[in-house]
Write a structure and sequence with these properties.
Two copies of one chain form a homodimer.
Chain A (H helix, E strand, L loop, with lengths): L2 H4 L7 H22 L5 H5 L1 H11 L14 E4 L5 H11 L5 H5 L29 H20 L11 E6 H5 L1 H13 L4 E7 L2 E2 L2 E2 L8 H8 L2 E6 L3 H13 L5 E6 L22 H11 L11 H31 L1 H11 L5 H4 L10 E3 H15 L3 E5 L3 H4 L17 E3 L4 H14 L3 E7 L7 H9 L5 E5 L17 H6 L5 E3 L4 H13 L7 E4 L4 E3 L13 E4 L11 E5 L2 H17 L3 E5 L3 H5 L3 H7 L7 E4 L13 E3 L10 H8 L3 H10 L2
Parallel strand pairs in A: 1-2, 2-3, 3-7, 6-7, 9-10, 9-11, 11-12, 12-14, 13-14, 17-18, 17-19, 19-20
Antiparallel strand pairs in A: 4-5, 8-15, 16-18
Helix pairs in contact in A: 2-4, 2-5, 2-12, 4-5, 4-11, 7-9, 7-18, 9-18, 13-14, 16-21, 18-19, 22-26
Chain lengths: ~675, ~675
């Protein structure tokens, strides 16, 4: 058992705890009523769980919200945001009562669902159910990995728990099921979830659709499971203590609760899930709780006093850790420096310098080149972790390091299993925890399965790297279910996600460099790689920061004398280049070839640079990309792509059939108006 | 117990069964070797399961592959396609040996993964793991619903089982977990899955990532679970018989198998998962099996004879059903006619005629209008089934019919729970089964969670209707996690999916009519609806078949005298209309307003019509849509949209902040070059 969890929980007198519970309930109903919008039922039903956890167990310091060894708390049932806002406010985070009074209003710190990066103390953006559950798994995994990597005997600088409150809806979602199975497999002992088992979802009682034995399911995943009365503070506290003692597996505490507990008219009813109680019922609730009926947003002085005292204790704990860390730094100065550096989330220049160069000549699949880059980064970066959804070999992301497991908690190669959505959501949690850099990998076509979590990585601006290989019909024989058509463009649609499709091994090095240069606040990067070999071109670049550049054009030809521009990405760049050369030699047509590995980076360049690459006067432009043409009209009046599903046959033959040969591009160019 | 499952299984002599098993194994390794690509290990390991199921249990008639009362078989582990192709060939489907010899080749009937609609007898396209599992749940649900709806005492015209072979990978996927929980909840007794528990996935042994107790998990879902030796034919047959007898819950038979069973050098190894065995190992395998070493694609005469005899028996069963159905038709002529009509999957004109009209005037949220249309369709169409992922009220899809449940198997309102991906995949299965028309519903932003199954519905051209409400930032207070930005466009990217975003109640009627007119082979339709009220416009149309049309322009103005075109969809049409009126009145600018509810339908119109709506000469065009501008350059040189995430605040205020008011559109127009 770690030092942290062997500490006894703080103890609050029952009366004090009860007053905290009522404060949370009334803050929640007042805020929802003021907004005339929101979800009062969940915060009321979960107020005891929240109060016991935050009042007696959670170790954090509201004055140092980024203290690395704080416990993490995830409100996976993000619609119950007022529970979290009330707890943050009471605990002393920079979230004044005025913000609670502006719940769900423009510019407030209290949006409808918790938003990481927007409100201090919110560890993860939640709302899409199941994804918070999975993010918590990633946080706990990061903690265990960092503990295994950095802790030294007697100097345990990483030692904290990850807690969550999860709902019926969370547990119905497949992404949570995937993450739960993985967490059980890995035996994440410091992952502790309280399940708000209130038997109510939006459409009514959960038994309309959900009658499985949740406890038995989680036991089957390898979790420790308990059932308690979620309104019995002592029972919840006892279960939390036992969960902390179970160090070899995650814990689920099924808390039977009543939604809108305390509301005389709406307790237990789905009507309280997503709508204000109404003024009359708010008043009736306050009466029933023995609360001043006319008071709004009332925090009794006694409650303030409890939390003020608690803040002192929390601060002491944090300062004790600081002292502990100082001792660690003295004993292990290099490790300490490394730990702090990677907490920032930025990749040091000396690690970026290890990205290999690829001399022109020969041919190499970009997935293979990506594997070589990754190998170099893994060797240089001690907290780069990641893996694949059971396609590590195919994705080229097999790593020459230990696999992550119970036995090897310091292992950096994560076997996510065939769980794409869970993988991406767990990676969000790893990135949110900090101290590590994270990547995941699968086939591009299966990015569809991950889209919920991809969007959240972009919304939270997390620097996760998503490696997607087998990026076109060139997959070949596996057929249309495995051949991406629309995925490339659909990733480009996600605001904040950078999508890089390198043309060869050299641009692949650039893609990884670009991805690793993006830090927290910049957002995720998707790197799209080929299964098939591509020529390594002398014309290509090893930096893709400009997003697009002139790869080639006939020598000594002024822009005004050019016939037009071929704009291509990835595997189509070499095809376009060969087509342009043929157009010059065989047809006297002088065509510029632009390689555009990253739209987002290109669009961020100054207009002058963009006009240099794609001169406005050159209106005869043809995009060439082995995917949907949709969206390319932005850059090229004419498009050469694939607007239908693929077929099962060898990739080379498909290239003939689908028109992705130099000859086909030449023919298309010659037909342009 | 139903009549069907009380029939004893056919019995094959063990020696005959063993020869079938070896035939399947050798056909699989020969085909993969010939293609030099594919997955030999799974068909070898699952050959006993496949032989017992198809040889002794499956009721179907290869000469009448669409016989409605056939058992359904799903190969959820689609990469083992050669197992299915071998079984189809041997059983007598129109899949000659020559096609097996062209496995994975251009134009063959034997693509890398099974494709429904491409190869006769393939009930569902599989490959993306977990989705076949979920589709089977939909098929079994369709069967039970139709049985409850149409069967009459002594005249059971619907009475068949749904079988599947599922893999480790299937069971790791969240979509399968969602569907499994739902199947257990609903107690689908005629759903019987064989789990190919071979302990091997692509990256190696499954215990790298998957150590849960699968049997206990499925028991927790409410399934009957057994464990057997998957290479022991008698054990598999016994378990199948017991599974058929369990009429109150689905069954999972965990068959412990060895991947590439029979290969002396590669059995039990992940090397056999996704690569040919190699010529030498193929030969060694044949030697070990006592098979002629030089023979390729050998089907012994004795095996042919077994299946020839079986075909006679299957035909007899089918003919018995035909006679049974004739009796049914005599007793219940109207029901019989209805049953047959809905099997076609086309919605009769008299039902379409029931779609209500919405007189202009007033305001109504399109989700509300959609609910009214749905109510009319539900009243008129006896096998229209569907529901929501726990948002029925919010989506406007509450139905005045019984809920689907164990107790009410004829219930048409399906409560899918908070399981978006499972919902869409189950709907695919409902549509694949036939006899029903299907819709599902959730918030537009959560379409991201369903994308894997959405793509499959489009790839299989299934007429599923996907209702997505809360289709823009107008969601309001729920904030960015609930406000779609890129989803609208990302749905348009999926080939074959029609995306309709109606401008008001009138176009909403048109959207539903359009969706219901699409039948099998046409593909799915997504209908995007608002949370907020929209004016019901006299200018809008109740048919949207042309995809886009001129909604309004200043009276008596020739095209050449127009200032340009505002192209809008959904909630932005009324905004654009008001802007255009202001532009005329206040600024003397004559602007046409085009409503474009469905890009796909518009692009299918003749060029002459498209040029009429968007005259090429009118190059000053501005698109107005409350979502990403990405892609709009196809129709409009200028775009007014939302290329960043939303915010939590009342929708009306967000419209001001984000520029979605008539005044903002007017200002934008006046700024156009």
């Amino acid at each position: 058992m770690s030092a942290r969890v062997s500490l006894p929980p703080r103890v609050l007198p029952p009366a004090a705890l009860a007053q905290i519970v009522d404060t949370i309930k009334t803050l929640a109903i007042d805020a929802v009523q003021a907004a005339n919008s929101g979800h009062p039922g969940m915060p009321m039903g979960a107020a005891v769980m929240g109060s016991v956890l935050w009042g007696q167990f959670l170790v954090h310091d509201p004055q140092a919200p980024l203290w690395p060894d704080r416990d993490r708390f995830v409100l996976s049932a993000g619609h119950g945001s007022m529970l979290l806002y009330a707890l943050l406010h009471l605990s002393g985070y920079d979230l004044p009562l005025a913000e609670l009074q502006r719940f769900r209003q423009w510019g407030s710190k209290t949006p409808g669902h918790p938003e990481h990066g927007h409100t201090v103390g919110v560890e993860v953006t939640t709302g899409p159910l199941g994804t918070g559950f999975a993010a918590g798994v990633g946080m706990a995994l990061a903690e265990r990995f960092l503990a295994a990597t950095y802790n030294r005997p007697g100097l345990e600088i990483v030692d904290h728990c990850t807690y969550a409150i999860v709902s019926d809806g969370d547990l119905m979602e497949g992404v949570a099921a995937e993450a739960a199975s993985l967490a059980g497999h890995l035996g994440l002992g410091k992952l502790i979830y309280l399940y708000d088992d209130n038997h109510i979802s939006i459409d009514g009682p959960t038994d309309l659709s959900f009658s499985e034995d949740v406890a038995a399911r989680f036991a089957a995943y390898g979790w420790q499971v308990e059932r308690v009365d979620g309104h019995d503070a002592a029972a919840v506290a006892g279960a939390l203590a036992r969960a902390r003692a179970a160090s070899d597996r995650p814990s689920l505490i099924c808390c039977r609760t009543v939604i809108a507990h305390g509301s005389p008219g709406k307790a237990g009813s789905s009507a309280s899930h997503g709508a204000p109680l109404g003024e009359a019922e708010v008043a009736a609730t306050k009466r029933a709780l023995g609360w001043p009926e006319d008071a709004k947003f009332l925090v009794p002085e006694a409650v303030r006093a409890v939390f003020a005292e608690q803040q002192l204790g929390q601060r002491e704990r944090r300062l004790a850790w600081e002292a502990h860390f100082a001792a660690y730094r003295q004993a292990h100065p290099e490790l300490a420096a490394q730990f702090l550096a990677h907490l920032e989330g930025l990749v040091p220049a000396e690690i970026l310098a290890k990205i290999p160069s690829f001399p022109p000549g020969g041919a190499m699949a970009t997935r293979k080149a990506g594997g070589k880059v990754l190998a170099a980064l893994v060797a240089a970066h001690p907290t780069l972790v990641g893996g694949s959804a059971d396609l590590a070999g195919s994705n080229g992301v097999e790593m020459a390091v230990a696999s992550q497991s119970r036995a090897q908690p310091g292992g950096r190669a994560i076997h996510f299993g065939v769980r794409e959505h869970g993988m991406a959501a767990v990676c969000n949690g790893l990135a949110l925890h900090g101290g590590v850099r994270v990547f995941d990998a699968t086939f591009l076509v299966f990015s569809d399965f991950m889209r919920g979590a991809l969007r959240l990585s972009a919304l939270m601006q997390l620097p996760v790297v998503h490696v997607f290989t087998h990026d076109s019909f060139w997959v070949g024989e596996d057929g249309p279910t495995h051949q991406p058509i629309e995925q490339l463009m659909s990733l480009r649609l996600i605001p904040g996600l950078h999508v890089v499709r390198p043309a060869d091994a050299r641009e692949t090095a650039g893609a990884w460099r670009h991805a690793m240069q993006r830090g927290p606040g910049d957002g995720p990067t998707a790197i799209l790689l080929t299964r098939q070999d591509l020529p390594v071109m002398p014309e290509s670049r090893e930096s893709i920061e400009v997003g697009a550049y002139v790869l080639w054009q006939p020598k000594g030809v002024a822009v005004v004398d050019l016939d037009g521009v071929l704009v291509a990405t990835g595997s189509e760049v070499a095809t376009a280049l060969e087509a342009a050369r043929t157009l010059e030699k065989a047809h006297g047509r002088r065509v510029r070839v632009v390689s555009m590995p990253c739209w987002e980076a290109f669009l961020a360049q100054p207009a002058s640079y963009r006009d240099e690459v794609l001169p406005p006067a050159l209106t005869r432009r043809l995009s060439v990309e082995a995917g949907t043409t949709f969206g390319w009209s932005r850059f090229a009046a004419h498009q050469h792509g694939l607007d239908h599903y693929g077929a099962s046959a060898p990739g080379k033959l498909l290239a003939e059939k689908f028109g992705f040969t130099p000859a086909a591009v030449v023919a298309r160019w010659l037909e342009l108006p």
